[in-house]
Amino acid sequence: MSKELNIWLDNLLEDIESVQFNRKSSRRVRVDVASEALPALLELLQGHASYVHLSAITCVDWIDDDEFELVYHVWSYETRSLVSAHTRIPRDPGVYLSIYDLYQPAAFFERDIHEMFGVYFEGSPDMGRFILTEWDGPPPMRKEFDSESFVNQTFTWEQYHPQWLKDIEEEGGGITTRPEDVR
Amino acid sequence: MSTIDNIPVRHETPVAETGSKRSNPLAHVFDELVNFCRSRSLFMLHYCTGCGAIELPPAMTSRFDMERLGIQPMVSPRQADILLITGYVSIKTLKRVILTYEQMPAPKYVIGICSCTVNGGMYWQSYATAKMLKQYMPVDIYIAGCMPRPEAVISGLRTLMDDIESGRADSWKKYFQNYDYYLGNQQQLFGEHWQTPTDIIAEAHHYELITEQTLGEHTALLEKHQKPLDALEMRLTGKEKQKT
Questions:
Q1: Which pTM does this prediction carry?
Q2: Is position A81 within any domain?
Q3: B168 at the A interface (CB within 8 A)?
Q4: For B2-225, CATH number?
Q5: Residue A156 falls within a domain, yes or no?
Q6: How far A164 CA lies from chain B's nearest CA (Å)?
Q7: Which of A8, A58, B11, B36 is 20 to 30 Å from the Cα of A79, by its Cα?
Q8: Taking CB atoms and an 8 Å limit, are B127 and A150 in contact across chains?
Q9: Considering its fold, how many domains does chain A have in total?
Q10: pLDDT tens digit string along A128-154?
Q11: Residue A4 pLDDT more than 80?
């Protein structure tokens, strides 16, 4: 039964024009879809093709293309396969539709993405702070946020050549292998 | 600070007597005995911050057996002597670590385990982790490594025991003596409205560890923003209604 469902799904997805279909293996399918069509595709997968489990929603920041890529991973227990639906949304308003009405666990993933990337999901039940409750900077996973310069501004560093090491070096000792020699 | 007078212990020990404490030679012997006993019954607060905590179960249990040295885990900070910082401290965790540290009773020792407590370790680039633990609280010893093996943990604890016995491990005094420095670093990270329920300045008065570095611009800022903490309300309800 499960094989039949897979073949049926493959044929269907290959026939839809706006969907770019790519079967990676017997258990993995990659689908590239326009952002307008994604909720409809997920509804089809959940309602008619037994993809009832939303594993994760991930976000990729393509800063050069000025786009966010959202990847919805849905899993079917019947066919034992994972469909990854990729879609791209423009970076500037960074607003997309929530799929909370289809998959309720999406609320957590969307809240997390909102916190880390600043993408707002319309219709999601709670877009409040999730883990970074005491953070008031910009969303830290966006590519324009330079974590290294933030760290250099905020923190100071331990000295790598302190006085006690100089004393050891005067007696003829010291570090035999430096980190830059190993790298 | 207004609450100094509320601490009853201060009135019980007059200041004049403390000057003649050291004149009795037997008192020094007693101190050595106390240090000896103290170094052999250490309660370690069971508070694990990062990945280094995974090396503690083998160090505690039968293989390496920390308890043969008199070290055992303890559940509450009020009863603990050692605060082990096992790995990276995120800024959120650091707040809780400082609250915990300030709650511990006075001869208290901090051990920084793993590279992360020294200089950020492999999280040096992360926006979310604090880098140098010793900027926020005085650290007695560091056990370097990523992560240190249980042998290294045991060895570090033995060093701490020697330090306690010889009286070298007195970093808890530095927190009172240089409170302004530590508070300044905490305020730089958490914002100027940072305050803890523990009144460190009053405690410093109590231990007679007030120095020039205890009070300064940062404690003045703290005093400006500090909201007085109300005593917790105690209520007993429900039982009487059931009886009638």
A1: 0.79
A2: yes
A3: no
A4: 3.40.50.12280
A5: no
A6: 15
A7: A58
A8: yes
A9: 1
A10: 888 888 888 889 999 989 888 898 888
A11: no
